[in-house]
Amino acid sequence: MKRCWRSSRKPRNHRAGSEKLLEEKRALEKRVEQMKEMLAHAKVSDLESQAKDVKGVKVLAIQVPAWTANNYARWWIRFGTS
Q: pLDDT, tens digit, for every residue of 55-71?
């Protein structure tokens, strides 16, 4: 009689393994969002350093591709006014 190769293994707790993977996924997604925010903040800081003072008012004129204009606007509303 043939012996099944699976019968010699201990049963695994798949639920615990999948929960661990989900936790890791969430942690990585959170880290990605943090890194995106850090990058956006660095970009805005760089833009702020390029602003010119015109009669006491800081002026910044740049060309922004249309596909990122909304991203900058959302970021500025969320973080730029603090």
A: 999 888 887 666 567 77
Hey, is 32 helix, strand or coil?
Answer: helix
If you ran DSSP here, which 8-state letter would residue 75 be given? H
* pTM for this predicted structure: 0.47
Task: Report the distance separating Cα 11 and Cα 82, nearest Å.
Answer: 54
Q: Strands of 1-82 (E only): list them.
A: 52-54, 57-59
* Domain residue ranges in the chain: 13-80
Residues of the chain by 3-state class (helix, strand, coil), percent to 5: 65, 5, 25
Q: Which two tokens stand for residue 37?
A: 């925010």
Instruction: Say whether 16 sits in a helix, a strand or coil.
Output: helix
Give CA–CA dist 74/19, Å, rounded.
33
Contact yes or no for 60/51 (Cβ under 8 A): yes
